[in-house]
Structure to design on (414 residues):
């Protein structure tokens, strides 16, 4: 189906309407009230079953504004079989027309297959009897619906190449849809999985749950191929290397994006055969690294770095790093630089002052590296440490006397 364009009339006194969007990738919704003002609220929810009781909110709630008639677009329905138009705040006796426009995400999706599977499982351990053949599809979404109010049972979606329960293993990140919230587990990558298995991993004797699996396609670009975009749906590409990236934008085989193989998930960018940037997800954190002789961040307004600290280290030759403040380019190319000493015996932290400062004030640092703003008149030079030399003003104008440690004095001046 190339597209869906359908109006739905809804009474604003509660309730909902289910809209089948299974063959589509993206949707847009516009709500037109049939009266001047409204206190009613429309929310667009989603499900795999088409049942109102199974509808859940999108991760970012979709609530089209009836007053402004603004269009809520780019609603991702690739992993969704039904949209639900839900009136969440009653406005009794009033009506609104809801327009739903759903389209394929990309020209290649127009003939893409979609399918669904469903079943019911006893929560007493073991597997749903029949494995689900998914060899013709690239992605899946799963929704689990308990047949009772509360549950301690857990369902997990596993995979195999043989179709035998004994061979089923977990995905790299376990897919365990939440029964209580009915949340939909979306975007499950099944490109290399011919069979899915519904497994009950924690017994909840005497209880049952329904499961629903939606199957679809995703654009896939072969390693070294040209993106050609723009793509409205996600572009997935195979692992690559610096010399053979997953997506290439030029005739240079060392330029483009590639997905590195290894223990961590890494997305890298190469330019002319040299690694320029990589984003690494370790499972607990995401790291970003820039490479090259010079890295420049340019912004017309400002650039914000949200980090507990920024490391500036020496280069491979041991040259100390500098923090440079450049003058306006219309004046020249000079700068003021700050850099550390060659050797540092221990870590040091200097804290800038928070005090307001006046003309002629001084910055004074304590032993902890904390600066404060001080008026010079408040400094106390009256106490002279043992063995130190005291410099004092003379009795007459223009005289300066230096007291020595033997009690004698030296006069400087006339």
């Amino acid at each position: 189906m190339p597209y869906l364009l359908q109006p739905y009339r809804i009474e604003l006194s509660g309730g909902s309407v289910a809209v089948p969007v299974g063959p589509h990738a993206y949707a847009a919704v516009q709500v037109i009230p049939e009266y001047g003002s409204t206190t009613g609220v429309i929310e667009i929810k989603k499900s795999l079953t088409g049942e109102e009781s199974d509808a859940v909110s999108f991760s970012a709630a979709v609530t089209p504004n009836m007053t402004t008639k603004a269009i809520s677009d780019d609603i991702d329905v690739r992993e969704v079989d039904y949209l639900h138009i839900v009136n969440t705040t009653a406005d009794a006796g009033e009506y609104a027309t809801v327009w739903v426009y759903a389209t394929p995400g990309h020209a290649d999706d127009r003939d893409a297959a979609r399918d669904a599977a469903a079943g019911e499982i006893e929560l007493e351990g073991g597997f749903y009897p029949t494995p689900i053949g998914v060899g013709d599809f690239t992605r899946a979404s799963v929704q689990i619906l308990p047949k009772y109010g509360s549950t301690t049972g857990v369902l997990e979606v596993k995979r195999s190449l043989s179709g035998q329960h004994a061979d089923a293993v977990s995905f790299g990140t376990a897919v365990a849809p939440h029964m209580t919230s009915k949340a939909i587990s979306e975007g499950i990558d099944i490109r290399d999985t011919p069979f899915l298995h519904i497994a009950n991993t924690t017994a909840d004797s005497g209880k049952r749950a329904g499961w629903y699996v939606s199957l679809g396609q995703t654009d896939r670009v072969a390693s070294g191929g040209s993106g050609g975009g723009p793509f409205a749906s996600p572009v997935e590409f195979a692992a690559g290397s610096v010399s053979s990236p997953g997506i290439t934008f030029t005739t240079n085989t060392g330029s483009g994006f590639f997905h590195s193989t290894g223990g961590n998930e890494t997305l890298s960018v190469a330019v002319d055969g040299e690694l320029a940037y990589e984003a690494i997800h370790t499972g607990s954190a995401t790291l970003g690294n820039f490479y090259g002789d010079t890295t420049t961040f340019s912004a017309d307004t400002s650039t914000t770095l949200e980090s507990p600290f920024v490391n500036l280290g020496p280069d491979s030759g041991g040259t100390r790093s500098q923090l440079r403040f450049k003058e306006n380019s219309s004046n020249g190319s000079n700068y003021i630089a700050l850099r550390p000493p060659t050797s540092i015996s221990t870590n040091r932290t200097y804290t800038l002052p928070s005090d307001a400062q006046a003309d002629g004030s001084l910055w004074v640092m304590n032993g902890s590296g904390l600066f404060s703003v001080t008026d010079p008149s408040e400094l106390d030079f009256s106490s002279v440490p043992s063995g130190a030399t005291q410099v004092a003003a003379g009795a007459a104008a223009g005289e300066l006397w230096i007291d020595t440690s033997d009690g004698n004095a030296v006069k400087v001046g006339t």
Confidence is low (pLDDT under 50) at residues 106-111, 219-233. The first strand starts at residue 4 and ends at 11.
